[in-house]
Amino acid sequence: MRRWASPATDDGWPVMPMWRKSSYSNDYEGSCVELAALGAGEVGIRDSKRPEGDRLSVRPPELALLLARIRRETSGVADS
């Protein structure tokens, strides 16, 4: 996982990624992340409340691990 600070990069990522918000999010609570497909097989992650703020980039297997951990922690299941 690495920090991705600018959409205007020279390493093959699109200049303007197409960000999408989770269908589970709503406009009232304001706690949502957005994802975008980036070049080089990576996925961008950003805070929807701060779209111009810092971003992370991960490979799909890392994203799957992150989402699995979030699901476990929010469901009350202890990490093994």
Average residue pLDDT = 77
Helix content bin: 10-25%
Computed Rg: 14 Å
Q: Structural class of the secondary structure composition? A: alpha+beta
Give a brief outline of the structure:
This protein has 80 residues and is α+β, with helices and mostly antiparallel strands. It is built from one helix and five strands; from the N terminus they run βββββα. The protein has one helix at residues 60-75; strands spanning 2-4, 20-21, 33-37, 43-47, 55-58.
List descriptors.
5-stranded antiparallel beta sheet; 20% helix; 5 strands; single chain; alpha+beta
What order do the helices and strands come in, and which of them pair?
Layout: E1 2-4, E2 20-21, E3 33-37, E4 43-47, E5 55-58, H1 60-75
Antiparallel strand pairs: 1-5, 2-3, 3-4, 4-5
Describe the structure.
This protein has 80 residues and is α+β, with helices and mostly antiparallel strands. 20% of the residues lie in helices and 24% in strands. The protein is built from one helix and five strands, in the order E-E-E-E-E-H. The protein starts with a strand and ends in a 5-residue tail after the last helix. The mean pLDDT is 77.
